[in-house]
Amino acid sequence: MRETFRTRFQDQGRDFVVILCDGQRAVKLCPLRVECPATSMTTLTEETGAPHLQLRRILLPTDFSGCANYALPYAAAIARAVKATVICINVVEPIVPAVGYTGLAEAMPITELNEQMEYSAEREMPDILHSDDLRGLEVEEVIAHGDAAAEIVRVANEREVDLIVISSHGRTGLGRIIFGSTAEAVVRHAHCPVLVVKPPPDEEEESEQ
Q1: pTM of the model
Q2: How far apart are CA 55 and CA 151, in angstroms?
Q3: Which are the contacts of 134, defined by CB distance < 8 A and separation ≥ 6?
């Protein structure tokens, strides 16, 4: 089914895919690698008779990497079109010592590593909030702690978010894999629509190196 979907999608030259998520079957289909050229989202149109979708708050998760931030212009374009607020969230996932842990590089204990991650999030978030894409929009920031997917879903529920816009990939190496699984988990558990943005092939290949 996955390959059939991929082939038909590419043959028909589609720019966008909407999948109704019903349980894990649809979730397994969502992370498909399909070539979908980036499109410029400048306006949203509502055809006569189409159901009205009110978007007031858009949640934008990021790990501050180039691939993760590829979702930024999509969230901004939608927010600008419907006058929505963009809530940028970064989740600091605590480093927990493994069983039998006696010290991780004596000069950098786990407590200090966690503090460094917190400081990094506080330092990098303003760059997102004041980016050209978000200029003129109402923006908010959230720095959460815990499991990334669980915190994204929790904040989405607490803030009554209408749409989550998230990249399919994040940082390089292990972080990239973790962010990818985070996006999949968010799709599975979120109670609102989720737009998963796939970075262009060149950036995706660079992140794999």
Answers
A1: 0.71
A2: 21
A3: 72, 76, 86, 128
